[in-house]
Design a protein that fits this description.
Layout lengths: L1 H25 L23 H12 L2 E6 L2 E7 L1 H10 L6 E2 L3 H7 L9 H17 L5 H19 L9 H16 L9 H17 L2 H8 L9 H26 L8 H11 L10 H32 L1 H14 L15 H14 L8 E2 L4 E3 L2 E3 L4 E5 H5 L42 H18 E5 L12 E2 L3 E2 L5 E5 L1
Parallel strand pairs: 2-7
Antiparallel strand pairs: 1-2, 3-4, 4-7, 5-6, 8-11, 9-10
Helix pairs in contact: 6-7, 6-16, 7-12, 8-10, 10-12, 12-14, 12-16
């Protein structure tokens, strides 16, 4: 056994040396801590808070450095200048999707989020076109959100100002908005199928943000051991089954001259390209694309809202100022609309500060370089995974004084007007920027103002005792569980 261990270590060292030597033949890799055989730098990172570890390493190695997650070489970009240079100034070169084993097993290079090459380009372009045709970023989508906010307000009234966990109800709005785009339908909040679907989304976020999944992505061989990844794959299989059922119903009722929703448009495109063996428009791609839109469009927005309400409970003076602005601009007798936002700088600043402060996806989804890249004085080989440290941009202390403090003033000028910031990148930036950014911005503003127009948020403990520290900070920042009372105003 001792001889076997020695051989494994020697082999690992040879592999690492060959990788290092191969890179140096063309140029110098960014600096970084010396990796250990097999495990790389994983022991030097806090898997419960990768973001914090990256900030510490940036102090020693600068804004561009190299890490090894297991045997996988990863270049980290830290700080606004490095991130902007890569994602915006040189967007095409950094537009690949980096290796993320857990999602590779789910997506198989299909969909929008986890695909690469022509599949990604064609699917993304098609999806954006369809979403715009269906009113994304326009009044038609706004109407759907407003309708769903009305259902939410009625559901919150039924809590009778009693303590409740807001997780499920906050997720219902973005999920039903996405359902209306994809399926041309909405679900009643009491529908068992809808409730199960929502449960899967919530569980999936918890699983992919856990330390175990950080290890799984560094060491894919863990796939064959027991662990929470098994539960994730089971949940996704059930979600895919749900999506397939909806697609079958659409196939039966499809009118190619009158598409009603995203699935109809995709099925028509599949029919047009059925003789093209190279076509990316396949049933597998449709299922994963719908799953991508569901996952990205539901859990990210609902988690932002859930975290946002927790911050407002912690800072009641902020809630009071938002409600004062709502009373002044909107009143109590009509629903908030997007036109109101330009006249509500404080509320707009609060929404932005919530997104900045919670830092929902601290290291972004991994990118990859699509070709050999000379970046500053360093060489990054084609296919190398690139980790974009969004936390370092959202928490830049020169752009946002006291970044560790929740302060809407970060987005207000001296006159109280809303102040834009190039450092505001919660949706990422460049070629891989979130497809649903305009939808999410609408939802966050309309849902938050809709809630505060109708309710005062009452915590169950003294605001000073509320802890807003995330319970996990891996792929996503997961807020702690809490209850509150929605007191009608």
């Amino acid at each position: 056994m001792d001889l076997f261990i020695v051989l494994v270590i020697c082999l690992s060292c040879l592999i690492l040396f060959s990788l290092w030597k191969g890179s140096y033949a063309k140029g110098k890799l960014p600096p970084g801590p010396t990796p250990l055989p097999i495990v790389g730098n994983i022991l030097q990172l806090n898997t419960k808070n990768i973001s914090k570890s990256l900030s510490m390493l940036a102090k020693d190695y600068g804004p561009v450095f190299t890490l090894y997650f297991g045997m996988k070489r990863t270049v980290v970009l830290h700080g606004y200048k490095a991130v902007k240079e890569a994602l915006i100034d040189r967007g095409e070169e950094f537009s690949g999707r980096g290796n993320l084993p857990v999602f590779e097993k789910i997506a198989h290079n299909s969909g929008i989020v986890f695909s690469n090459g022509n599949t990604w380009k064609h699917t993304r372009r098609f999806s954006l076109t369809v979403l715009r045709n269906m009113g994304m970023g326009k009044k038609t989508i706004e109407d759907r959100i407003q309708e769903e906010v009305l259902y939410l307000v009625e559901a919150l009234k039924k809590t009778n100002a009693s303590p409740c966990d807001p997780t499920f109800l906050l997720a219902c709005v973005p999920c039903n908005v996405i359902c209306s785009v994809i399926f041309q339908t909405r679900f009643d909040y009491n529908d068992p199928k809808f409730q199960t679907l929502m449960k899967y989304f919530h569980e999936n976020l918890l699983i992919v943000s856990s330390p175990w999944m950080q290890l799984y992505n560094a060491f894919p061989l863990l796939h064959y051991l027991p662990g929470s990844h098994k539960e994730l794959f089971k949940n996704v299989a059930c979600q895919k089954e749900f999506i397939l059922e909806e697609i079958k119903q659409h196939q039966e009722s499809l009118d190619i001259n009158n598409p009603q929703d995203f699935i109809d448009y995709f099925l028509i495109k599949m029919e047009k390209e059925k003789h093209n063996k190279q076509s990316e428009f396949t049933m597998d791609n449709l299922v994963i694309t719908v799953w991508d839109m569901f996952s990205a469009g539901t859990e990210t927005t609902s988690t932002t809202l859930r975290y946002g309400l927790l911050l407002l409970l912690k800072h009641p003076e902020v809630s009071a100022k938002v409600q004062e602005e709502i009373d002044r601009v909107i009143g109590r007798h009509r629903m908030p609309c997007m036109q109101d936002r330009s006249r509500m700088p404080y509320t707009d600043a609060v929404v932005h500060e919530i997104q900045r402060y919670i830092d929902l996806v601290p290291t972004n989804l991994p990118h990859a370089v699509t070709e050999d890249v000379q970046f500053r004085e360093y060489f990054i080989p084609k296919g190398t995974t690139v980790l974009i440290h969004l936390s370092s941009v959202l928490y830049d202390d020169k752009e946002f004084p006291s970044p560790e403090k929740f302060d809407p003033g970060h987005f207000l000028d001296a006159s109280g007007n809303f102040k834009k910031s190039d450092y505001f990148m919660p949706f990422s930036a460049g070629k891989r920027v979130c497809v649903g950014e305009s939808l999410a911005r609408m939802e966050l503003f309309l849902i938050l103002t809709g809630i505060l127009q109708n309710f005062t948020l009452k915590p169950l403990v003294d605001p000073k005792d509320i802890d807003t520290t995330p319970i996990d900070n891996g792929l996503g920042s997961v807020p702690p569980f809490y209850e509150l009372c929605f007191i009608p105003v």
